[in-house]
Amino acid sequence: MRICLIAEGSFPYVTGGVSSWITSLVTEMPEHEFIIFAIGAESKQKGKFKCELPPNIVEVHEIFLDAHRGEKTKWGKRYSFSPEEFETLSEFLKGSQSLQWDYLFKLLRSDNLQAPMDFLSSKDYFDIIEEFARESYPTVPFTELFWTVNSMILPLLLATRTELPEADVYHAVSTGYAGVIGALAKELYGKPLLLTEHGIYSREREEEIIKAEWVEGHFKDLWIRYFYTLSAAAYTYADQVITLFERNREIEIELGCSAGKIRIVPNGIETSGKMIAMEESEADQIRIGAIVRVVPIKDIKTMIQSFALVEREMQNVHLYIMGPTDENPEYYEECLALCDRLNLQRVYFTGMVSVQDWLPKLDILLLTSISEGQPLAILEGMAAKKPFVVTNVGSCKELMEGQPFDDIGPAGIVTAVMHTEQIAKALLKLCGNSTMRKVMGGNGFHRVSRDYRKDKFIASYREIYETIGGN
């Protein structure tokens, strides 16, 4: 079977949980051929893969959301849109939840719209935005709305006109642009679409936009509606939607996904071999580790501020932030500056490391994200018998405390998001109690060995592919 995995902002350009998940899925299914349809943010990423490609990845197709930005074009073209086409384009630009995606796909891929930049410079586009401005943004400068919508929809116009590889199954690993591409592939080729949501893409974009300085306050709602509109395409076209835990399933239903499509398949981790090797720390030193990309959604600044409170109380504690720092260099520099302002002496950014080599050296693991799905970093830490302090996002609480009627006991301490005092208090509690650390580590290992096994995860996806792929 030939399976096309559609990934946005992850494999093969970025290391992290989703990329590791893709690598594991592909590697464990050598009987299938995989095509990677990779959606990157910037054209400068082209061919610069940070992930090793398993041998059964037979093709990699790349598109970039910044393509054609800044291209020169002629203003004032007039298209011969029918009233229905004009209305469909208008609903798309306004973020309508009742958008007829099949009709929109045909329109966007028609010969009439071969050059997206020409459309964005046309009189028709101007008319649509002018009407939109009168209806929804009468007090906002028209040029601001015009260029905001332009920058918002250009990536999708470009993406929907790209050539898509043929496959037996299309598998989008998020909604957003990846989900739209998957929906388009199903529309073009009539092949089944599988959607896996690790986190809820539209909710994550909403959180980012609310905090973003680059989005004017009066346009935040417009951007948020746009990403919910994109997600609706994936939910509508998907033959089956896979999510990782119950709360995600509930949110997907709230967002309009049919409950009958949704199946829960947790992530899985190998719990044998060197992942569970233990190594005692120096008797008078406590090492806290965070296996994490240094990006805003992981909220490294709250992590640093929380550790500053811990360092005031204890002189023998160290924080190792282990993960890539080049994904958002500006944010990394801000984190370094924060460490300097707080005069922290025992915070170390290690960059990329071998997680399996580092886990045995650590006493406590820490995660302070503002959004997550079901983090592989937590599963790896549980497999290594490490206790956690985590924020209450995604499935973190479920991983730490178990599902209803779980009889194992806590594997860590769950805190509120961005609550530096709670996080610091939890860290101090674990730092000062080696027995608690050992018990929680053992509980985590028990839970992950029972409920989050790699063989069960792979078996589930093998069965899903065979069922929807017809082989």
Question: How are the SSEs ordered, and which strands pair?
Answer:
Blueprint (H helix, E strand, L loop, with lengths): L1 E7 L8 H11 L5 E8 L16 E8 L18 H12 L6 H8 L7 H5 L2 H14 L5 H19 L8 E4 L3 H14 L3 E5 L3 H11 L8 H18 L2 E4 L2 H9 L7 E3 L21 E6 L8 H14 L3 E6 L6 H13 L5 E5 L3 H4 L5 E4 L8 H8 L4 E4 L4 H6 L10 E4 L4 H12 L2 H18 L2 H16 L2
Write the CATH fold name of the largest domain.
Answer: Rossmann fold
Structural class: alpha/beta
| Radius of gyration, in angstroms, nearest whole number | 24 Å
Domain module count: 3
Span of the ends, CA to CA:
7 Å
Number of helices: 18
Query: What's the main sheet like?
Result: 7 strands, parallel
CATH architecture of the largest domain: 3-Layer(aba) Sandwich
CATH class of the largest domain: Alpha Beta
What's the average pLDDT? 91
Q: State the total count of DSSP E strands.
A: 13
Shape: globular
Strands ordered across the widest β-sheet: 3-2-1-4-5-6-7
CATH superfamily (homologous) name of the largest domain: Glycogen Phosphorylase B
Unreliable stretches:
274-280
